[in-house]
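Q: Is it fine to ask for two folds in a single conversation?
A: Yes, each is treated on its own. Send the first.
Q: Here.
A: Result:
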Amino acid sequence: MQKQPKYTFDILIRSETKRKNFFKQINRIISGLRDEGFYEAASYMIDQRDRLQAKINRLIAA
């Protein structure tokens, strides 16, 4: 039996707390990449995070 994902797109749209925690985890990953010197990967993750935040915000506003 497959495990349910902790964060699904619907949950991120409906629950502000889960959304904040999700983005906190992403920010921790980005910080870790920067600390280890993976600046290009961190930059890519920042771009993807920003795109996801914009998409979620558009769906919430709709």
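Q: Second one now.
A: Result:
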Amino acid sequence: MEHGAVAAYGSLAHQWAGSNTTQVLELILADDPFQPKSEWNVTTDLYPERATSNIIADAAHALFPEQGKAVVDAILPWLQQQSSKL
């Protein structure tokens, strides 16, 4: 449905993308069958000034059961970095 709307009307990202400065962490699952490598870094491509990507190795679509510690190891340093900007 979303793809059809984008095809019909074009992307609406320009209307809402720059509305704030909230930082975003994009976790990329290295072995996710639903997100091929060609679609990695979509968020950082859309918001290069406020998004950070982190690739989680050996993770498919069930991220937390597969790589729970890797998720924590990716998120905590990023959160500490955000806290230092306050």
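Q: Anything structural to flag on that second result?
A: Two points. Strands lie at 24-29, 51-56. Residues 63-83 form the longest helix (21 residues).
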